[in-house]
Design a protein that fits this description.
The structure is a homodimer of 496-residue chains.
Chain A lengths: L8 H28 L6 H19 L3 H9 L6 H18 L3 H23 L3 H26 L3 H9 L5 H25 L13 H14 L7 E5 L5 E4 L2 E6 L6 H19 L16 H16 L2 H15 L5 H8 L16 H17 L7 H13 L15 H4 L7 H21 L2 H6 L4 H10 L9 H9 L6 H12 L1
Parallel strand pairs in A: 1-3
Antiparallel strand pairs in A: 2-3
Helix pairs in contact in A: 1-2, 1-3, 3-4, 5-6, 6-7, 8-14, 8-21, 9-10, 9-12, 10-11, 11-17, 12-13, 14-15, 17-21
Chain lengths: 496, 496
């Protein structure tokens, strides 16, 4: 690699990370295309090309000159924002270098085999088949956690959390989730008791095309810029692409439009965050989204704070009627989208019961990493927790129990808390913006949605990773994470 | 770059060229996406990412170890096919290294500016604006031609031809095109004289969707494998992607289906060649298509030898009627698709007058490179040639004269002959296969098309670049390029 003659070490670094970003652009394109466009015959060559690309990106992120240059740049005169960018560069360098290549390779290969087998094992409720794979994979995850722990001076589980939520600790999560545990189960019961409205409706079948037209109109209402992104179809909805070209996907169920519609609203939240990241920092680590929880806060803001609110649904109702020929009233739509129904599956859970699924996984992951829970005891632990948190029975039902998520099957621990942190941040942002904008629900009902997104753009999106999560949230709302807002939101929506 | 410990220098090279191929896969994906899917907002980041990728591919192709390793591999025991692969590696290495980086950069930048300005200048018939840009660009093209000439021991124009047609010479082309010149203008006149059938038809407007459905059915009939490719829309039709995932495009004119339909047939010819390249050589230089003329021979085989033949059109007629509600008979379709009408524009030209457009450009390019024709004299030269070859007047009409093609505006000389060579090879292949298969037109009329493509697959596609063009054509047809078959084909079709 030839070095340019830079005016500073920091400049050398920005050029290098810009180069990395160009290759990551191609990686995002390859991923998106694979999920949406690629015919099956393309898969072997694509797999090989993507592996080559990943290897090249890893080489760039571990380039030998980086260690010294990152060190030397620390002593240069930098603006506050440049210093933040340098911090993120250090973080990326650390992430790419901390785990020895041999362990990365072993874990990647085992995770690939474990996931592949899991797809069938889950279908067949085959816990005995899955268990040894998961045990072998957990051993490598623990090894990873220990290496990260030593390098960062964090506990092993904190080190895993920090892959997704820099700065988050088990202690903090225990306090937040502990608080949640004191009121959520009883709230669920009260809501179920109170919930009397009709909840089964005849939903006429709607063509994918009509649903897509509606979806695009809703995206447009939510301010999605189609000159900077696309909507397509994939079997697992996601939001990909790059900031100037954000590509979200959904899947259509022609017998029930409600799921794809809310899915599009959710992904549009992710997409607007990406579209709103600071243009001046594009291609630099500081220009990336802050964390998984903040990302999820934006999708859940769209889905939960806006999308399932009656103001939004009253605005949507005529559009649904027009495009889908649906007879559902705003009240009926609200009943559908705020129905509380404790169930076995996390991804199908409603807004109130969802955090219970996360609580359970958080407790399990802590135990798996600190050794207080063995893989063998996982199903029993799962059944007890599901029973006590949600009153549902998963005894013997592994496929809808501890085998339901892909995360563990690929050896990814530490991610689950981000979902509920995101829901909490979303509520906190809404209450904060209401101090200046007034009721969000009222604004949305009037179609007056632009200022809501201006608030998010100014306070969250345009900040990229220039601030830590705590700084970001404090600057936006006056305080760091405060789960009371989430409670208030749920009480307002479900008990009023 | 870390070197593996290979069993031989040749093995080292195959690994290295495999790596290059992975990055070229990403380049093909980026190009296709840019033309078909990318929203306008993605263009800046994509441009930068693609430039970074091109730079990386160039670095790989000019890696310092290659010169010695290519040399050392020459002395290793190689199979005939490995030796052919090594020859193609040497050719790629030569192409990537022959022009100094400073000239590549200067030409790329000037070509970009020249093309950008040309888009408006052409619209405005602004020859005076275009001329100085073209003069500046021609100076760099001559510099490139001289460098290539010295490196290869070829004349400067031969060196440019060899970028697209390895082994082709000006002398050979002069003989082939000289022959053409003796009979083509009079053939055109005879056909025009003879041509009496109706040629203006009311073509009902057809939706893009209906045309696409028809296009897919025709692709299917032509053996295109949709598990290994796609059909999409772009403003300039092309065939891209990679062998296991070939992506062709078209554009639909809802007021006239005939153009998109023949466009799809043409691109399907390119696509089947790519899909049929030797699987064992994927990712290696010997696995690539042989040359531009051979590629064009496959598209023109589909379009001219099959697509515009009455057998094919009789097979197509009921499908057109079914999908587009068209009332056109096979005879009317044949009249449309074989109408001869000398005109100003190459890309709109019919099968018989097309070579005249190529002849003119070949003569002009030779003159521009050897200095016997100046850019300033180009319009006059153009007008004289068009008048004598086709009897049409381009005096003062620069935009439909020497400003009509993008090739020169981007400094690409030496490509045009490939189009007509392709047409000639296509005719030669058809006559050769008819010695064993009988009349192609009859087979197609019966829908019995598989053996035609088996012949092409066996003789052409599966050969990749394992043979030189002359060897390939001789092995397939018993002789090297023989333009008599093209003449015979045109006389059969247009004078019978």
């Amino acid at each position: 690699m030839t070095q340019p003659s830079p005016s500073s070490h920091y400049d050398t670094l920005t050029k290098h990370f810009q180069t990395i970003s160009h290759f990551e652009h191609l990686s995002a394109l390859g991923d998106w295309d694979q999920a949406t466009m690629m015919p099956v015959g393309g898969s072997a060559a694509r797999g090989a090309a993507m592996a080559e690309l990943a290897k090249h990106i890893h080489e760039l992120k571990t380039a030998p000159f980086l260690a010294d240059t990152l060190q030397l740049a620390q002593d240069e005169m930098l603006t506050r924002e440049q210093a933040a960018n340098l911090k993120e560069m250090n973080y990326q360098f650390f992430q790419a270098n901390v785990i020895p290549a041999s362990l990365v390779k072993a874990k990647t290969e085992l995770a690939y085999r474990c996931e592949h087998a899991w797809r069938d094992q889950r279908k067949n409720n085959d816990w005995q088949g899955f268990r040894p794979n998961l045990e072998a994979l957990m051993a490598l995850v623990k090894e990873e956690a220990n290496i990260r722990s030593q390098a960062q001076g964090l506990s092993p589980y904190d080190a895993l959390l920090n892959k997704f939520e820099p700065g988050m600790t088990t202690e903090h999560l225990e306090s937040v989730f502990g608080h949640l545990k004191t009121w959520l189960p009883s709230l669920i019961q009260r809501v179920q008791h109170k919930q009397t409205g009709e909840h089964r409706f005849n939903i006429d079948s709607c063509s994918s095309q009509a649903q897509e037209t509606l979806g695009r109109e809703v995206m447009d209402f939510l301010g999605f810029d189609f000159t900077q992104g696309r909507l397509d179809v994939s079997s697992h909805p996601f939001c990909g692409g790059v900031p100037g070209d954000v590509r979200l996907t959904t899947r259509y169920d022609e017998s029930d439009f409600t799921s794809a519609l809310m899915g599009v609203i959710h992904e549009t939240g992710h997409a607007r965050y990406e579209q709103g990241l600071p243009i001046n920092w594009r291609g630099q680590p500081a220009g990336h989204a802050r964390s998984m929880a903040i990302h999820e806060s934006q999708s859940l803001f769209c889905e939960m704070q806006l999308g399932r609110g009656s103001g939004f649904l009253s605005h949507l109702q005529p559009q649904i009627a027009k495009h889908l020929g649906s007879q559902l009233s705003t009240e009926q739509l609200t009943n559908i989208y705020t129905r509380v129904n404790p169930g076995l599956i996390r991804v199908d859970a409603d807004e109130i019961t969802y955090p219970c699924h996360v609580l359970l996984r958080f407790e399990a992951e802590k135990g798996l990493i600190d050794g207080s829970l063995s893989v063998a005891d996982l199903p029993e632990f799962w059944a007890q927790q599901m029973s006590s948190l949600l009153g549902v029975n998963t005894q013997g039902n592994f496929k809808d129990g501890c085998m339901q998520d892909i995360h563990w099957a690929v050896g990814e621990l530490g991610y689950f808390p981000s979902y509920t942190l995101g829901a909490m941040y979303a509520a906190q942002f809404r209450f904060a913006m209401e101090t200046s904008l007034g009721s969000v629900d009222t604004l949305v009902a009037q179609g007056d949605i632009a200022q809501i997104f201006e608030w998010l753009e100014q306070k969250i999106w345009s900040q990229g990773s220039l601030l830590s999560t705590d700084e970001l949230v404090k600057q936006a709302t006056g305080e760091t994470l405060n789960p009371d807002y989430f409670k208030r939101h749920l009480e307002q929506r479900y008990l009023k």
